[in-house]
Amino acid sequence: MRIPESELILNQDGSVYHLNLLPEHISDTIITVGDPNRVALVSQYFDLIEVQVQRREFITHTGYYKGKRITVVSTGIGTGNIDIVLNELDALVNIDLVNRTVNEEKIHLHIIRIGTSGTIQENIPLGSHLVTEYAIGLDSLMQFYPLVQTGYETTISEALQENLKLGYQPYCVRGSDILREQLGYDMVPGHTVTCPGFYAPQGRELRLGLKIENLMQQLQKFRVEEENIPGFMLTNFEMETAALYALGRMLEHEVISLNAIVANRFTYQFHPTTDQVIDDLIRKTLDRLALTS
Ligand code: R1P
Ligand code: URA
């Protein structure tokens, strides 16, 4: 079936609408970062940069690190942007952009988010690197996609809905086991809450009150105990991971989220040298990616 011009929008040069990229511009190993300035902080370590493209907040560099071809792309903030980035990256590899048809043979991307995050648990120190096992989305993106959750994921999302008395069901998705083992084996394992905002949706109060009272404390104390499964607790906040995991599952890509912990919401501390923590995570990730096939 041909996908019409209004549904998959291409620029005059045939590139995808927002990312401004052609299929040859990307590798099948893709690092996503929120901050557009972080793209160059990753690609500064490449031996060679062969592609540099920008449109809006979406900056892309593709190059080689120790012989491995890697693309790094900025997503900006929020799950709305993840909807655009994942759909357009997938279109670049799984849709014939000339004939506008879905390719029969699918390419499975490896997508690694290198992001910043705030922990909600006292015992996770500032400066930690945390790998997300399950991500829980409090945003509305999955109200629009037919995501299928496992029984355990449904248990978590129903329990959280009940706990917070939300008028909609959050979504819970497990990330890639393969990438977690390859890249995050010595990191703090965690379950990440993806929020549709930075302030009230993460329980921060400046001049406005909170509609969900004590949101942060409620999430901190949230537990799900299941027979034969270690107790489930939430560990950190950010704004993209759950959407990456959910769209990654539906589009059949491997996705993992690696988080530099820059804030501790329990102790009210912010890391004094976040650049160093992020740089450590970038170098660690690149070195580990170079060892993968
Ligand atoms: C908020 O400051 C931003 O930082 C976190 C959140 O997910 C949000 O995007 O990630 P990045 O540092 O990757 O942007
Ligand atoms: N990013 C977030 O979304 N929240 C934090 O507390 C820190 C980074």
Automatic annotation (TrEMBL):
Q: What is its EC number?
A: 2.4.2.3
GO MF assignments: purine-nucleoside phosphorylase activity; uridine phosphorylase activity
Q: Which Pfam families match?
A: PNP_UDP_1 (PF01048)
Catalytic activity of the protein: uridine + phosphate = alpha-D-ribose 1-phosphate + uracil
What is the uppermost EC class here? transferase
Query: Which CDD domains does its entry note?
Result: UP_TbUP-like (cd00436)
Q: Name one GO cellular component term.
A: cytosol
Q: Which residues form the Nucleoside phosphorylase domain?
A: 30-263
Q: Would you tell me the protein name for this molecule?
A: Uridine phosphorylase
